[in-house]
Every structure is written in C-alpha cells, then in structure tokens.
Amino acid sequence: MGRAVWSALGAASWEPDQQTTARTCAEIAVTLYEGHTRDQGTPYIEHPMAVVAILREELGVVCPTALMTGLLHDVLEINPGARDLIGRRLGVKFADRLADITPDHRLEQRAKGPGDRQVWREKTAALEPVPLLIRLADRIHNTRDLANSPDLARRARFLDDLAVFYLPLAEARRTDSPQLAAAYRVLRHECDTHQEEKRHGADPVLNGPNGQDWRPGIPPNDPQRHG
After folding, report:
1. Do 98 and 32 meet the contact criterion of CB atoms below 8 Å apart?
2. How far is CA 124 from CA 4, 27, 54, 67, 153, in A?
3. Phi/psi of residue 15, each to 5°?
4. Helix residue spans in the chain (DSSP H)
C-alpha cells in the first residue's frame, strides 16, 4: 500500500527533501487509515488517495505540501489523538493545517451537536485557497461515491449540501486561483449531472433501479417524489 500511496502523490518527481517528507506522510497515512472503512464498505485510504488524484489530475495541483495535506485530510477526523504524532513527524504547522480542515466536534471527540453543521460551514468558508481546495476535492469525490453508500439519508444530505453550500462557495471563491476555478467547474458538472438524472428519475443516489425515490420520510404518493 505504501507504494500505491507514493504513486498517488506523484512523489517520484519531487525534490529529495520533499520525497523524504512524502515517505513519512505515506507511512502515517497507511498507519492511521488502516483498519478503517468508509460508509461504502471500502478501505478508508482509498478515499484520500482519490482526493489526491482529483487534486493532481483535475484541479492542476502540483504543490507537494498541498497534495500531502490532501492525503491526510481525514486522519484527525477518524483519529483526533494523532495530532501530536503528526506534529512531531511532519511539524506543528502541518498538524495545525489538518486541524483547520477538520470539523470541531471531531477534534473534540464528541457527538455532532445541533449547531455544529453551521459552525463547520463557517469554518470552511473562512479557509485560505489551498485548504479550501482540498475540502472541495473531498466533496467532489464524496459526491461521485454517493451511489455506493447504503445510508440514504446521507445521500440526500450530501446532495443538499452540494447545492446549498459547497457549489455557491466554490462559485464565490473561483477567482481566488485557477485551481479553485477548476474545482467550481467540476462541482458544477457534478451538481448538474445529478439534477438532470433526478429529472429523468435515473439518479443512482436518490432513485432505485426502477426510478423509485429513496429519500427517507417521504410517503410513496407524496408530490415531492414527482415534482
């Protein structure tokens, strides 16, 4: 797995000191993501590797620090206690950067409360361009992977967040950098694709194989299913 992570980062072309940091980063990623699975049932590390691929191949990111941050963007979410370890191995600034893109309730190791969603949105909206780009790349992969999630409420919530929060934020910040402009275009495409599929009753996230609306809490004959 270490070689796969190394390849995902594209670290073979980096400077020697950057490669040294990349080896440490890859080791931490393999160690901290090991044993964790996503809601989709896949090994957790496949998600951050996909985020790195999006950053590199679709958004034009070449900065090693940004790519390594993308690789570790979820480690404090699944293991908040690893912040000190990351600080010792990769530096306090790197650990702080990861904390900046991690929901507060995760850092505080508590259940998500009523106001945490809004706090997270405010925290995300205030991010600098590079950490924001990582969060948008994360959202791109999450959106693409939603059809594999068995949690129907999660599917609907993610698509709602995309349309109501992430896409408007990406649009507002698209002039900050060419990479954020690219992220907006990709998110716009993802959103448009889901909306088009939804109109035709073929969205694999919200609709079953027979066009059935899977959104929870909506009666079968409710007009919302057909509107």
Report:
1. no
2. 29, 27, 19, 18, 22
3. -70, 155
4. 2-9, 16-33, 46-53, 64-71, 75-78, 83-90, 92-100, 104-107, 116-125, 129-145, 152-161, 167-173, 178-199
**Could you give the C-alpha distances from 55 to 37, 43, 50, 51, 186, in angstroms and in order?**
22, 20, 9, 6, 11
Amino acid letter, residue 35 = G
pTM of the model: 0.86
Identify the CA nearest to 170 among candidates 152, 201, 151, 191: 191
Both structure tokens of 215: 């959104």
Give the contacts of 38 (CB within 8 A, at least 6 positions apart).
44, 46, 47, 145
- Which two structure tokens, joined as six digits, stand for 158? 């993610």
- Give tens-digit pLDDT for 141-192: 999 998 888 888 888 888 999 999 999 999 999 999 999 999 999 999 999 9
Give the span between the Cα atoms of 223 and 18, in whole angstroms: 56
